[in-house]
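Form P-L/3: holo structure prediction, ligand adenosine monophosphate.
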Amino acid sequence: MILGIDLGTTNSVCAVFKDGKSQLIPNRFGDYMTPSVVSFEKDGKIHIGQSAKTRAALYPKETVKAFKRYMGSDKTYKFHGQLYTPVELSSLIIKHLVEDAENFLGEKITEVIISVPAYFNNIQRSATKQAAELAGLKVDKLINEPTAAAIAYGLQDKPEYTDFMIVDLGGGTFDVSIMEYFDGVLEVKASGGDNFLGGEDFTNTLIELYLTKARIRSKQLNQKAKQKLYYSIEQYKREISTNRPLVIEPFLEVKADKVEITFDEYKQACEKLLQKISKPIERCLRDSGLEPAEIDEIILVGGASRMGFIKTMVTRMFKKIPRTDIDPDLTIAVGAAIQAGLKAKDKDLGDIVLTDVSPYTLGTGVVNDNDVYNSQGLLFDPIIERNTTVPASRVKTYITVRNNQKQVQMEIYQGESRLVKNNIKLGEITVNVPKAKAGQEMVELRFSYDINGLLDVDAHVPSTGEAKQITINNAPGELSEAEIQASKDKLAKLKVHPREDEKIAELIMRAESIYENSLEQDRAAITNALSQFEAVLERQDPKEIERVAKDFNDFLADFETNGWFD
Ligand code: AMP
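OUTPUT (holo model):
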């Protein structure tokens, strides 16, 4: 059986085509969404998915998420002395999903269809394939995420040319694509977005609004309190509506006012974010060469597209109500599974991919004048933006920052963060400049990027004519047989928690996390319940454990809702 997988930045979802329809698959916790998170214990034990996300609250430094952003790059993550690539981490997620699917279906999965963003280039696509192969699976095909969303909405059944737009606002990424369908072929006409914009930014905006109104300074909050703040406000964000204002009683261990936040206040605070969303939509439309009225259908995808004002904004821009009838978190997985079904009936849809774009932003580091204490390091200054059509060549000019500066050293980075320390350093280039006052000498830095992932960097000093050039091969290349085997051996050494154990481990970690966030009586209650639960575990009776685990889960859920959010 072919499993359709939406391998997401924040969450992953899978589904199969069964009995003539797409069927979503619940994971071991009974949820359709499995967090794309991996957490490493010291002794080689790992947690994947929900338990890794829970563990992140206790051990953030041992936990990794959002690695999809770096697929196809040579970024590595280090845990307990061992390096892991985004491909290896993704393979752990895929394996975990497949294990849950096999358990649910009672059937072996040998093939998968995995969704990838439309703007993924060949390097990122082959990295995704490698991840599945490392997990011992055959990749039947990769499907563009917007294509999968379109299929979920049945656009393949349209009789004539159809142009449509998919707006995908997830937790931390925003993708917009315009596609055209005709006669069995879906073509990506334009794609755009922002790799660092999503629901999290709206949560952060609501947090700021809350702190200002409650008269709390963020300096007053320790790490744990900040975590509780984030968790609680995220929930409030989901509740906010035009009907009645949010009323938030003090819930942190600092002096705070009771706060009321109306929908309009929140919306106003989000104005900048909404503009950041509308820009890529407009640009994508321009790139596609279509007029707003020519877009036949608009589909909203991603959890954060549930926010009412996103729908309103899109409706205003296009004078058309976007479709939202399928759960926006599950749409892509539903589509991937339908694709598997179409394939079985030999009605496979052709998928024309837009790969001639730069997958990452490429740029250099510049001094941050506002960073008086130099705590943040250099600011990232983009030269070739993500999603620029390649081949592309762009030049920017930089001036000297010190009097009598002899050399200018430019560092070259790839990534989407404002700060270079969060991006990947690709190399550096140094040129000599004549002595002069700060700001009087300059260097022209030209980046030329081609479809094979080769980046040429030229630095030129106009006043002397000095020029230097370096070429950076940005494609990590295919793994050799020996490298694949080495990766498999490394991953095989990791001890994955058995399915049942993992639920128990997750409950215990949740209890510990709640304990850390509680005080006195609550702590006593949690300690008491946890010891009773552990006593049952000692007796090793699976039936009894199952029953008690359910009660313990309800007990913790009560704390999470009553203790934390009210
Ligand atoms: P999830 O749907 O859990 O993957 O979350 C992705 C993003 O969507 C997160 O930033 C959530 O806060 C956001 N989100 C999910 N549901 C809602 C909702 N009902 N209202 C507002 N934001 C939401």
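COMMENT: Residues 10-11, 170-171, 198-200, 203, 234, 237-238, 303-304, 306-307, 329 surround adenosine monophosphate (CB under 6 Å).
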